[in-house]
Amino acid sequence: MNRHPQNNHAKSTGFTLLEVLVALAVFAVAAIALMKVSESQLQLSNRLEEKTFAHWVALNMVSEMQANQDWPELGEQTGKVAMAGRDWKVVVKTLATPVNRVRRIDVAVGVAPEDFTQNMENLTILSGFIEQPSVQTTGSDP
Question: Domain of 22?
Fold first, then answer.
């Protein structure tokens, strides 16, 4: 007869306190890493939104100047535009080109600073060209 001695103590089948603490530590590290990635993605998304709106402001400025057949003076002009619930600072630089009837315009756009005289961070710079409008006579020539 082969008898195994019976153990009067029941075998524990749960986790030890140490195993639970290690599992919590691993989970905490993973959760912190996930939070940092989420925060980074949110900042990137906000930045991309700002750049997109700034580019739209610049496109609108160039399109309006071309549609109105403006002939801007050479130099730099600064203005403020409201779009998407924000104020945008717009700097338009007008430059001469080798063709006398064409001018280059560079439109720089950024979020308008509190003090408008402060420098801004350019979120976008868009270049366009404007042709001098032809002079049309409205007189009655035979």
Answer: 17-131
Q: How far is CA 44 from the centre of its chain?
A: 8
Rounded to an integer, what distance in angstroms lies between the CA atom of residue 33 and that of residue 125?
35
Is this prediction's pTM over 0.85?
Answer: no
Q: What is the pLDDT of residue 124?
A: 93
- Percent of the chain having pLDDT more than 90? 61
Cα 109–Cα 84–Cα 80 angle in degrees, nearest 5: 40
d(CA 4, CA 134): 111
The verdict on residue 83 lying in a domain is yes
Domain count, the chain: 1
- Which residues are CB-neighbours of 111 under 8 A, at least 6 positions away? 50, 54, 86, 87, 88, 89, 120, 121, 123
**In this structure, what are the phi and psi dihedrals at residue 97, rounded to the nearest 5 degrees?**
-125, 170
CATH number for 46: 3.30.1300.30
Give me the percent of the chain exceeding a pLDDT of 70: 86
DSSP character at residue 128: E
Per-residue pLDDT reduced to its tens digit, 15-58: 888 989 999 999 999 999 999 999 999 999 999 999 999 999 99
